[in-house]
Amino acid sequence: MIIKTAKFVGSYPSLKLCPPEDRPEYAFIGRSNVGKSSLINMIVNINNLAHTSSQPGKTQTINYFDINNKWHLVDLPGYGFAKTPKNIRQNWGKMVDEYLVDRMNMQCAFLLIDSCVPPQDVDIDFANWLGENQIPFVIVFTKSDKKKAKQNKGFLSQFKKEFLQYWEVFPTYFISSANKKEGKEPILDFIDNINYQYFEQMKAKK
Ligand code: GTP
Ligand code: MG
Q1: Looking at CB atoms within 10 Å, which of 58, 81, 85, 103 has the fewest?
Q2: What predicted TM-score, i.e. pTM, was given to this entire model?
Q3: Domain range enclosing 195
């Protein structure tokens, strides 16, 4: 897929304020600081379209980006950041959970996992929660360029092993680096495929 246009649509503090459900959309989720916003920028090839920070907790609302006037990318706040005050964390959690469960045109969530750290319970718990709620998702292992990721190739297989204690199969997954621009094409091809099916179904309904 070629990205012709990528525009910021808006930031929304709750599901009920989000744009109409009139096109396919894809949400990026994962722990704070895992690289959700950076991955969005890398995919659309615009620096700082989604705001990034080395401090966890940068993204605090549901952020919409319009791609090719055809589909939406959605940047969500991260989970698992202990320093965010508890009441704010609970609000974000509620907002993200509500979004993922009730947003009917959300085709597939991209669950980002940091490839520089051993498997984290909070990530496995979140994946299990997605499964319990029948929310379709794929996995993206981020920051593959970092020394820690390169030195610890075992983190990926450790994560798979941990995951497969709860699941029968490992989902589709991608490996990415925002810095090295790795992972863009496979992720866009994957989205393109689902978009195609979405628009075919829409045509058939007419
Ligand atoms: P929250 O909005 O706080 O949930 O974080 P986020 O998941 O959106 O992370 P963000 O994209 O803001 O990136 C966090 C930090 O990781 C920043 O300092 C980025 O520069 C860095 N980072 C993100 N992706 C990569 C990557 O692929 N490689 C490297 N080396 N650093 C990355
Ligand atoms: Mg962010």
Answers
A1: 85
A2: 0.96
A3: 6-205
In a domain, 118, yes or no: yes
Give residue 80's pLDDT.
76
The string over 41-61, giving b where at least 16 C-beta atoms fall within 10 Å of a residue's C-beta and e elsewhere, is: bbbbeeeebbebeeebbbbbb
192, two tokens: 């393109």
Contact 43, 187 (CB under 8 A): yes
For residue range 173-187, what is the model confidence (pLDDT) as tens digits?
999 999 999 999 999
101 within domain boundaries: yes
Query: Which positions ≥6 away from 201 have C-beta within 8 Å?
Result: none
Between the CA of 56 and the centroid of ligand 1 the distance, in Å, is 8
| CATH code at position 145 | 3.40.50.300
Q: Ligand 1 centroid vs 108 CA: distance in angstroms?
A: 21
CB-based burial label for 30 (10 Å; 0-12, 13-18, 19+): buried
